[in-house]
Design a protein that fits this description.
The complex is a heterodimer of chains A (275) and B (307). Chain A is mostly helical. Chain A contains 14 helices and no strands. The two termini of chain B are 45 Å apart. Classes of the chains: A mainly alpha (275), B mainly alpha (307).
């Protein structure tokens, strides 16, 4: 019996470690390649660990490309995008869950139905709209769509419905206006969902590709994924430069993940995010 | 205290209270969804090149071509090739992804020492942007100096040209996608496993069932709702491949990895055939709807809902 259990443990860790190694090898390769010189990229036999590690690739990323600016752009866009999503979605959710008005159910259905529409269907006309509003190559072009995020509304409606009406009524009997009830009573009671949503929304915005690719063509305005894809065109064969850029682009999201692991987990369990 | 507190209003008085809360979302809905959808239908019926002003006088006379875009897409060899490429992806990706992510979920569901570390490690590929992940894999799959073929060489295997080889490019994309997504779908399935009532396992243990029997007789059947969800999501995603294609192959070699969104992007923003691209995007929409409907219909044949 004991022997069998030990075998089970060995089997478990073998399988778990094999998958972990497969998951991590690409990142180790990225790390190793980013410290190689251009010559070492094509050495035979291959240098798994660079013999003469150098920071040249990192220096090149920052000197040939406004990469600090890019990191700043990404941070700014993702933070504002997330804040607007939380504000707009929680307001709508409050109305749907706690205020009675005619056609509420129908309107909520329309909101949810838009989740079925792939973004590709609207990119061409949206490009036209953004062009008309002179928003191309502005942060606004990438941030503004955050004002309507049906999935966030959906999650927050679910959460707000669990708040007992008595709480809200008590506040309004005490003379609180509807807005005060919203931000002093309802919002604080939604903090767990808001926390989860803020992280998943931040990550989506941080990693987004198609829309910023169309909107941000000016180097000074680009987000990290767009800058990386530009590097891919410019330094297609300089893998060390590409890997240095990729590594830098990953750092912020990994740091956030380490601090807010639980919220990430809740976000996936809610069935939401995709990188 | 005018009696219009939350939860009390009905009828149009409520609408006046509610509207300030709804205005931002409604503006967004109108500008970023409804209007573009209508314009998109309109554009798809024209041969607009993106330059002439939309809705200008005489625009219709000059550019309206009815359903011609749809006809020419559906009768083009390219469309069917693109659909074939996507099917190749789906047929390889979905079974492999399910196998790996069910394994991941099963491993993470055990209360063993270090399981938290494994969960973090499996999840790091999900956190990585598709652009960064594609760049990393592009260098790994480089035929001569990439990690993949050099590792294979250690075992005496001569690896193919991967992304440069017409036969291997799509399987390579599948491989990368499975690597990227296993943590994501693994965690969704994990929440399914955690949701299974433990009394089933206790009853099975009393009957003398081993871990393998428990997995196939309890875990897997009761996990079918979660597996079903994962299949729908991954099927819909499969029709929307984009960043990995753009970065790793750009549709090549020789069109072997051309897919729908890549075509829509290129027709719209490289060849400026806005009408053609719009029609393409509506065909994509219909395909996605059909897949979802088919799966919803087929599900009661094999999904067990534990009520």
């Amino acid at each position: 019996m004991i022997h069998k259990k030990r075998l089970g443990t060995a089997g478990y860790y073998t399988a778990a470690i094999v998958i972990a190694v497969l998951a991590m090898i690409p990142f180790l390769w990225m790390l190793s390649t980013s410290f190689k010189s251009r010559g070492a990229l094509m050495s035979v036999p291959i240098e798994w660990i660079p013999k003469e590690p150098t920071l040249k690739a990192y220096i090149k990323v920052f000197s040939k490309f406004p990469f600090l600016q890019t990191i700043g752009n990404s941070l700014f866009i993702s933070v504002i995008y997330t804040l607007i999503t939380l504000l707009s979605a929680s307001m709508a959710a409050f109305a749907f869950a706690k205020l009675r008005f005619s056609a509420a159910d129908l309107l909520l259905k329309v909101f949810l139905a838009t989740m079925m529409i792939p973004t590709q269907v609207t990119i061409i006309p949206l490009f036209v709209v953004m062009n008309k509003m002179n928003l191309i190559n502005t942060y606004g072009s990438v941030i503004l769509p955050s004002i309507f995020r049906p999935f966030a509304v959906f999650l927050l409606v679910q959460q707000m419905r669990t708040i007992p009406n008595d709480y809200l009524d008590a506040a309004s009997i005490d003379g609180a206006s509807v807005f005060q009830v919203y931000y002093k009573v309802a919002l604080p009671l939604c903090i767990p969902t808001l926390a989860t949503l803020s992280i998943t929304t931040f990550m989506e915005s941080w990693n987004d590709y198609l829309w910023p690719l169309l909107m941000l063509t000016d180097k000074a305005k680009m987000t990290l994924p767009i800058a990386l894809s530009t590097l891919n065109g410019q330094y297609a064969t300089e893998y060390n430069v590409l890997m240095a850029g990729a590594l830098i682009s990953m750092i912020p999201i990994i740091v956030i993940y380490c601090f807010a692991q639980k919220n990430f987990k809740n976000g996936i369990m809610a069935g939401g995010i995709k990188g | 205290m005018k009696g219009n507190g939350p939860g009390k209003n009905r009828g149009c008085g409520g609408l006046i209270t509610a509207s300030p809360f709804l205005v931002p979302s409604l503006i967004g809905l109108a500008i970023f969804y409804l209007a573009p959808m209508l314009i998109s239908v309109f554009i798809s019926l024209t041969d607009w090149n993106g330059l002439d002003r939309l809705f200008a006088d005489g625009f219709m006379r000059q550019h309206y071509i009815g359903l011609e875009n749809y006809r020419s897409i559906l009768t083009s060899d390219e469309f069917w090739k693109v659909l074939g490429n996507t099917l190749e992806y789906i047929v390889l990706y979905i079974p492999l992804m399910l196998l790996v992510s069910i394994s991941v979920a099963t491993l993470l569901s055990r209360q063993r020492k270090g399981v938290g570390v494994f969960r973090v490690l499996y999840y790091i590929p999900v956190l990585t942007s598709w652009v960064a992940a594609s760049l990393i894999w592009k260098t790994i799959l480089a035929p001569q100096f990439g990690a993949m073929n050099n590792i294979l060489a250690l075992f005496g295997i001569k690896g193919p040209g991967w992304l440069l080889d017409e036969k291997w490019a799509m399987p390579a994309i599948v491989l990368v996608s499975v690597w990227k997504d296993m943590g994501f779908f693994g965690l969704i399935l994990l929440s399914g496993i955690i949701g299974i009532n433990t009394s089933y396992y206790e009853a099975a243990a009393i009957d003398g069932a081993g871990p393998v029997t428990k997995f196939f007789r309890i875990t897997l059947p009761l996990l079918t709702p979660a597996i079903f969800y994962v299949m729908i999501v991954s099927l819909i995603n499969s029709f929307q491949l984009f960043p990995q294609i753009m970065i790793m192959t750009d549709g090549g070699p020789n069109g072997a990895t051309q897919v729908m969104v890549e075509r829509i992007y290129k027709y719209g923003f490289r060849y400026f055939q806005m009408g053609y691209a719009s029609a393409f995007s509506w065909i994509l929409f219909v395909i996605i709807m059909l897949c979802t409907a088919l799966q919803l219909r087929g599900q009661n044949r094999w999904v067990n809902y534990d009520s």
